[in-house]
Amino acid sequence: MSGQKQVNEFLSTDGIRTWRHGAFPMPEWMRVHIVGGIEANGTFAIKTELGEARVHLGNVVIERCGSVWARPVEEAAEFVDDLRSSTLEISSVGPGKVRQFGIGLRKRTAGKAKFPTDRGFQQRPVVGAPPSIEWIKLDLLSVDSAYQRSTENDASRRLIAGIAAKFDWRLCAPLVVSRRGDEALVIIDGQHRWMAARKRDDIPHLPCCIFRYESTQEEARMFILANRARKPMNRLDDFYAALAASDEDALEIQQIVVDAGLVVARNTSSTSWAPGEVAFTASIANAIRRHGVQLTSAVLVNMAEAFPGQKLTHGGAIFGGLIRIMANQALALDPDRLVDVLQSRSADEWGVFAAGLNGGDARMQALEKAIMDAYGHETAPFAASDQAPAG
After folding, report:
1. What whole-number distance in Å separates Cα of residue 77 and Cα of residue 131?
2. 3-state SS record for 174-195
3. What is the mean pLDDT of each run of 10 residues along the chain (391 residues)?
4. Is 291 helix (H, G, I), strand (E, B) or coil?
5. Please, what is the Cα angle at 16 between 12 and 18, to 5 degrees?
6. Which DSSP symbol is given to 13?
7. CA-to-CA distance for 122 and 268, rounded, in angstroms?
8. HEC string of 192-205?
C-alpha cells in the first residue's frame, strides 16, 4: 500500500480492506465494527479479538476475514504487507499451541458480521491486576530476544527510522512493560517505538503500562496474544515466542533440530542465515504429525551429515523431498548410500532443481525426483496421505 489515495480509500485486495479515519464517507464494512458512537473529539472504539481499541483521527483501520486492527498511518503500509505475506494460522507449530492459545485465525467460523449486541452477554471475572502507568527512562528498558520479534530486517529498520524521523506524541501509545522480580523492565509490546525514541536526542523517556507477570513464559503468552490482535507474526517469530512460552510442540521441534546438529533460524530472510540454520518449522511440525519424530529426525540428521557448514537456502525443498522418499515404504533404500548421493552435490546445487517452481508441493516433488534419479532408482508412487505439506 503506497500513496495517499491508497491509504485514504477503501481497498479490497487479497481480502484486505482499509479505511483511514477522516476520509469520507465511512464505508459500510467499517460500521459493523464500531462499539458505541463517535465521541466529540472524533474518536471511536472498535471491537478487536482482545477487546475494544480506540481509533483516533488519522488512524488506519484494517480488516481481513472478520478481524480488525487500528494502526497509525505510518505503520499501516507495513502492517498490510505483513498481513499478505505472514502465516496467519497460529496453530502452525502444533496442537500444543492451539491448546494454550486458542484456535488459529483460519479456523474461525465464517459468517456475516453483525452489529454489537448485549444479548446473551455474560461478564467474566477480570484477569490480572491493573498496571501502573509510569514515565520510564529509555535506558532502563530492555527487550527479551527469547520471544520478541527480530528487528534485524529491512522492514523493521524502515519502520524504526520512519517513527524516529517523524515522531508524533499523539500517535505514541504507552508501551506494555513487565517489571520482573529483579526490577528489570522488559518491553512486551512497543519495541519499535522504544528503538525509534532511542535514535533521537530529545526523548529521554516514554509512557509505559507496567505489569507484573508470574514468569517469562507468561510474558511470552501475553506477547503472542497482544500481537495476534495487532500484527501477524511470521513463522519464526511465532515459533520462538511459543518456545519461550514452553509450548510442547515448539520444544519438540527445537529438540530434534538441535539433536540433528542444526539450528532454527531467527530471521525469515535467507540472506541472514548462517550455515546449518533451518527455517521450515511448519514443515517439520507437519512431518512429525504425519510420520512421527523418528523419521523426521532421521531426515534432519541426513541433511546435517550431507551438508556440513553449508547454508541451507533451499532446505525446505530438500527436507520435503527427503520426507517423501524416506516415508515411502515402496522404496527399499540403503541409508548410507542415500547420504552419499546427497553429498554428491552441495545444498545450493540441489536447490537448482526447484528453481522457478511455485508451491511447496512442486518443489518437494522436484527434489524427490532429482535425488532418486541420482540414486539410480525410479520414483515409486507416493500416496497423497503420506505427503508432508510444505511450510
Report:
1. 31
2. CEEEEECCCCCEEEEECHHHHH
3. 42 72 84 84 80 82 84 77 54 48 40 45 79 94 88 85 91 91 92 94 94 88 73 77 88 95 89 91 91 94 94 93 88 86 93 82 89 74 43 45
4. helix
5. 80
6. B
7. 42
8. HHHHHHHCCCCCCE
Cell triple for 363? 518443489
User: What domains lie within the chain, and their CATH numbers?
Assistant: 4-85 (no CATH), 132-233 (3.90.1530.10), 247-386 (no CATH)
Q: Is 317 left (phi over 0), alpha (psi -120 to 50) or beta?
A: alpha
What's the rounded Cα separation, in Å, for the pair 327 and 295? Answer: 7
Contact 76, 1 (CB under 8 A): yes
Secondary structure of residue 41 in the 3-state scheme: coil
Give dist(CA 164, CA 362) in Å, integer: 43
For 67, residues 6+ apart whose C-beta sits below 8 A from its C-beta are 48, 49, 105, 108
Q: Which residue has the cell 515448539?
A: 250
Q: What are phi and psi of 47, to 5 degrees?
A: -95, 115
What φ, ψ does residue 149 adopt, rounded to 5°?
-65, 145
Say if residue 6 is exposed, middle or buried (CB neighbours under 10 Å; 0-12, 13-18, 19+): middle
